[in-house]
Each structure stands twice: as C-alpha cells, then as structure tokens.
Amino acid sequence: MTIRLADSETKVIDSHAHVFPDALAPHVIEVFLKLFPTEVFADGTVSGWLDHMDHSGVDKSVILSVPTKPSQVDSINDFLRPLIKHERFIPFASVHPNHDDPVGVIRKAAEDGFKGIKLHPLLQVFKPQEKRMFPIYDAAIEEDMVILFHAGAGMDFDDIRGSKSDFDEFYQQYDYHRAVLAHLGGRANFQDFPDFKQGWPGYIDLSFSLGMMPDDYLVALVRDYGIDRVLYGSDGPWRSESRDLEMLTALDFNDQELQKMFYCNAAQLLGL
To answer: How far apart are CA 201 and CA 83, in angstroms?
Structure first.
C-alpha cells in the first residue's frame, strides 16, 4: 500500500496506535471517553484497527499499551506477544515502574522480539528524570530497544509529568537517540516548542497534534527539530489515520520530507 504524493508514492508507518483485547476494548473506550471526550475511529480491537489501516492506506502500526498497575504488565504483554509476528503490527512491550522486576520484564521482552517499550509519566506516576527509572532505561538501552514516552499533558491531569524541562533533565542523563517523545514532545507546552532547536538527540512523533496549532507553526517546529527525527503517528483509535494523512500532505512539506515522516524515519528507527 502506498500514499500518493505530488510527485511520488510512499509507504506509511503509523508510529503510535492502540488496540485492546476484544472483550476489553468497549470498556477501555468508554473509560477513555469519560476522561477525554473526543472522536473514536475504530472499535479498539485488532481487526477493527486493521480495517481502519486498510481504509487509510497505512502499511504498519506500532502498537502501544500502558499498564496503570504492575499487575497488568504480564497480561498486556501476553496479549501483545502474538502480534510480534504479525506482518502489519509492531507491538511495544509494556512495563510499569512499580513492577517487582521491571528489568526482568524488559529482558524477556527483548528476548521475545519486542522492538521497544512504552512509558507514560502521567498514568504511571513518575517523572522521566527520576533515578528509580534509571535501571529501566539502562536495561532497554542495553537491549537496543526504543523507549517511547508519553510527553506533556493529557486527559484530565493538571500536573504535567513529562514536560520539556523534565525531558531536558532526562536527556542530560541519557544521550539516547532511540528515545521517542510522543505528541510533538508535549503538545500542551506550545510555548516551549521553539526551544526544541537546542537539540534533543531522540525523536518526536506527531500523534494527536495535527490541527492543534497553526499550520505554519507546526511546519517550522518540525523543521527546527529536524525532519530526520520526526515520526508520523496517529494515536488511533482516538485519531483517524486517513484524516491525519490528508492534513499532513496539505501542509507545506515537500515529498522528501513527507516520505521521511511517513515511513523512512520509522523504518530506520525500527530496523525495517
């Protein structure tokens, strides 16, 4: 599958999407919508998201899940593990900072073939620069795994754990180019965006960010950050891939820049 650009075609990797077990998906969507009223573009299931990907012309999706309690880690990873061999999905393992053995979870995830982990400072109640997180980062880095963070505000949280200053401190400790900060590195902190050109070594993704600011501001932000380190991501099912792709192609990016964000950058990061 390819997306038609002005002068070329490109494959698409959605670097930020979510699916849930069939029996659990309706409940998860119900709870999320109570916290953060928005649209939903799939039913939250594996088959539902595949249908949406097909409709949108997306080749692969990185699948992310967040355990809000340590007891959920094993069951979530058991659900995600079969997707490792799925030709359309790239699941990231789940880990919780308060798990009895988070390093062991990461070692097993790497052995199983997971390419990365997802961490959520808001839902898992930590700050990225906390020393108690260092063993988790060390293990993931030793296993050459991607570390993807939720960044900025979200849902009904007033306290931002994962602000620009928090990640400034994280990167002072970990000069890790395989870290990804979701939502343009923290979309709620728009006033911080111009400072991105100071140079974080890792990636940012576009999830739940298109249409959240003036178009020319977003284009300048992406170019200032570095087009080679920006990933397309939808945050589906809370966002529509097809609508996002239409919005992104309408912005003032050339075909080469779009190809990098749609596919090339993610493919390089994920070793595809």
So the answer is: 29
